[in-house]
Fold:
Amino acid sequence: MEKKKPKNVFVQGAISSEFIGNSIAKHQTKTSIGAHNIFLGQVRADEIDGNRIVAIDYTAYEDMANQKFYDIREATFEKFDLTCMHIYHSLGKVNAGEICLFVFVSSPRRKIVFEALEYVVEAIKADVPVFGKELFEDQTHQWKQNS
Amino acid sequence: MQLTIKYFGMLAEATSVNEEEVQTEVCSVSQLVKKLKHQHPKLSDKNFKIAVDQKLVDQNYMIDSKAEIALLPPFAGG
Structure:
């Protein structure tokens, strides 16, 4: 496979609903598409022993992470007949209720986008070196771990 | 040879460094990890994977030239 510098997937802070809306609007010119599917990861205010999570502070091994996102992207295009695909992940602080991951896949037909989206999200969770510090309301923290 | 060691997440917190240079002879990943644990005792009870020049490797992998080594705690993307 040809090696080129992968595109940066990371955005500082939360991903806004305006950004997501604009991203959808940009696809109106791509009229071969018949189906979009979108995954939005949202920070959950889990409560542990009466202590509530108020935000997650994300960090990453950015160069490796961007390469992994690129590899996932290539593998997904090889596996599924997609027209296009976009991934954005937050870095830094994202408050509970805000969006930290936005995955957007598009294809001429619906069945493919359901399968492709799940494949992409599961691969991101398992393979990309992103780390999350869960910040509690009492100023303590713990480190998030994907299950 | 000189290795650049990068620490992330809870490991950067445990060692209080994000990055450091280490001088070593050719060694396996497990030998290097042993050395790093000696240097940073708080790493001992941590669970992590190792990447050499951004590729995950196992404990037996031989590090034989200048490289960037990353200690990666459990992933938490999404």
Observations:
- The first strand of chain B starts at residue 2 and ends at 7.
- Helices of chain B lie at 9-15, 29-39.
- Strands of chain B lie at 2-7, 19-23, 27-28, 49-52, 55-57, 62-63, 67-72.
- The mean pLDDT of chain B is 96.
